[in-house]
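Entry 14. Structure prediction run on the chain below.
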Amino acid sequence: MIPHPRVLIVDEQEETRQVLRTVLERRGVQILEASRADRGLELARHHHPNVIVMDVELQSASTPDVSAGFAAETSEHETSVILLGAVRQGSSRPAGGEVVSKPYHYGLLIRKIEELLAKAG
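Output returned:
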């Protein structure tokens, strides 16, 4: 794993952000978090996380500018993306983005994040 991995969690559910933050920080991961897609994009542009975990519902509700911004950011900085929820066929998602369907188990989601961080480093 990279020396100081950074994960951005973009989810309106406080519980999701809290569980992931607690577990991943104990493993030495720096956590950034946002409850809104536009704020998540600001954090991604400023901090260039290694992995972004994003609720699909937030992404689909956001403006085209925000969706395009995430796509550009993840492509430019080779950021891995995990989308939480169901992605409809034909809908846009960042290249290489992985989907974790809801309902999900935190253990499986955390392992997926750790796998992507290991690939990044």
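Residues 6-120 form a domain with the Rossmann fold fold (CATH 3.40.50.2300).
Filed with the rest of this week's runs.
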